[in-house]
Amino acid sequence: METTLELDSTILGVSVVAEGLNVPWDIVWGSDGHLWVTEQSGTVSRINVTTGEKKVLLNIKEVWRKRTSGLLGMALHPDLEQHPYVFVNYTTKVGPDSVIVSRLVRYTFQKDTLANAKLLLQIDGGTSHNGSRMAFTPDGKLLWATGDVQKKGYAQDSTVLNGKILRLNIDGSIPKDNPIPNSYVVAWGFRNMQGLAVAPSGMVYTSEHGEALEDEVNIIKPLQNYGWPEIEGRHDTPVEKAIAARHQRTQPLRSWTPTIAPAGIDFYASDSIPEWTNSILLSTLKGKSLRVLTLSHDGTIVTSEEVHLENQYGRLRDICVSPTGDIYVSTSNRDWNPSPGFPVERDDRILRIGKIKTEKRPIGYVRKPKPQQQDAVSGSALFTQHCAACHKEDGQGVPGTFPPLQGAEQVTGDKNQLAKIILKGLSGPITVKGQRYDQAMPSFGFLTDAEIASIATYVRSSWGNGASGISENEIKSNR
Ligand code: HEC
User: Fold this and answer.
1) Is 360 exposed, middle or buried (0-12, 13-18, 19+ CB in 10 A)?
2) Cα 301 to the chain's mean position, in Å?
3) Domain assignment of residue 370, yes or no
4) What is the pTM of this model?
5) What does the pLDDT look like over 63-101, one tens digit per residue?
6) Among 122, 138, 183, 337, which residue has the fewest nearby CB atoms (within 10 Å)?
7) Closest among 127, 132, 115 to 74, alpha carbons compared
8) Does residue 369 sit within a domain?
9) Are residue 8 and residue 43 in the same domain, yes or no?
10) Would the CB of 263 count as within 6 Å of ligand 1?
């Protein structure tokens, strides 16, 4: 037992069922009683959670892995006995120009291997925003949540299959009862979904990475437009409100600012852990936590949110529930963006969270309230919330991807330039400490002048930068 979690009347134990994995991107409970796992570099394995034995069934040689591309989502047919099908999604490069594509492939499970690869669908791939997740609906159709591959027109173009929820038959054909005749598309306007779950009622939920501002959990309904790229998260800015007043746009069930990078989700229908019955379980990357979103009876309102295991196991990539109500969570500390202190030697790991006992509390027992989170007002706390995911706590960035803030001319030089970068974001080629970068940084204009001033002052004075502070007025004059 690694640790315990104490709920109102249930005590949960956390234990390790597998270790030494390399980014277990998708974990699924199979009707064969095993836990199935994809690793980002291209393997599909089956784990016996009682013995811990892991058997590699398949190594997909053509997988192309970089940053957040590689072998990603997986779904198993709910009845493997009758239909031994395993569906996976991965990126690969094709043709003389090495174009990146994203493939949905079906394999047949037979005698400890996966055979008869059948390509069901191929869409545009990219170095990032590939999604993806897959899940079965109670009526036996396969849903596929795809990413916009950072092409801004894609999510709103209903003829493109990126940035969508797609619905397929298990042979890859288009179901006759899809909402748009002869189209896979069910819903659109998505950026980069990292979680997909179907409740026993048939209700479909997704989690999605926003840009700088807001991450989301959505309820998916046919023919609805979820707004990206014009709308991020709730309809709360004047521009977003104006668009939503003119056109149908669907708001998230829940959104988070600052962002938490929500990843895998599963629906908790079991009564094994009664406090969590009828909730969405969510694993988070940047947030490094397991979140429990308890839902109203009809599943349409989040009535409470709990945060567990924060920072204990690093980034958490996926989650699934077994028929006995045990919960499995996979870590993602060997991905492209690990947090300080990770990976540890045993990473990546798959954890099991399960009930160890029910406590009988004396009548009138009041559980000790959890310490309240401190309001983040200091420059260092704001930096952790808004900047450290890319530029890192030590200001060193990620070589070739996110430039360093330590010793950078853009940070220690002209104050107005720094204010503008934070207010407006940045894109196009720049040179930082002699190295060229050509990526995009989102704008942080949604923060107040005081918040930006305190972040700017913090980065100018940290890591030996030794430059003077920036005032609220100096930020304001650059808006
Ligand atoms: C999602 C990732 C991301 C986040 C979050 C982010 N940045 Fe950046 N930042 C970048 C990228 C990428 C570039 C380089 C852009 C380019 O190539 O044009 C950059 C460039 C910069 C630069 C200029 C280059 C340098 O290294 O000095 C500064 C200054 C900067 N960011 C500050 C910040 C601050 C302050 C925050 C928090 C408010 C922040 N960034 C949040 C990705 C990010």
Assistant:
1) exposed
2) 21
3) no
4) 0.80
5) 999 999 999 999 999 999 999 999 999 999 999 999 999
6) 138
7) 132
8) no
9) yes
10) no
